[in-house]
Design a protein that fits this description.
single chain, 254 residues, alpha/beta, Rossmann fold, Dihydrodipicolinate Reductase, domain 2, 2 domains, 6-stranded parallel sheet, 5-stranded mixed sheet, 7 helices
Length: 254
Amino acid sequence: MSLIAVSGARGRLGSLVCQVIEDHPAFTLGAQLSSASGPDAGADAAILFDVSHPDASPGIVERALRRGQRVIVGTSGWSAERLASLRVLMDELPGSAAIVVPNFSLGSVIGTTLARVAAPYFDGVEIVEAHHPGKVDSPSGTAVRTAELIAEARGGEALDAPFADQPARGQLVAGVPVHSLRLAGVIARQEVRFGGSGEVLTITHDTHSNDSYRAGIRAAIEAIGSASGLTVGLDRVLGIDRVPGADPGRGGAA
């Protein structure tokens, strides 16, 4: 059985990752790492599953890859720029493999895929995302990834985002205004709103329980053994990225 170390094991998502690994017959839970763990902790594991902190994640991932571990990343904050740096690093490490998943929810990744399909047909689009007050980063990694994929699906065609320089209009990500809410009583919610002539299309996903992440976590750990290079997104892990408006050559293995 493959040994998996978990970085950020004491967090909300990390605890769930540990449960999924323990329940899986083909994997064994190894070191459960926290911010107090030393840099060599968990080095004996074949796989590192990182769900730590956005500031710490790049260093944790780089150390793991350099010592030959396969890596799954569920930590937020992996923007296009950060992923580009990771690709450069992995090009220096033949045989390395990493899967970066902004959101392990099946419904969320399907919602993002639908947004990619709609993106070329609407010039106006904004994203509203809401999470619990304990989420340290904003916009969320899911919202950032959704905005980037919408921009890619449009092939560089600019979106209509009037008065985007005003702070109340949200943060521009790949030309898409993104609005973040942090509220008690919320786990996770994302709305992608497309505006067209005489109509509005809204793609909404609500997370009601952390159990929604179990299937995606399981899929990622089952896929990492045969993965090659960098894979970005649960859609690529599940093979649902090949839909009209979703270019399988973008955002995935490099």
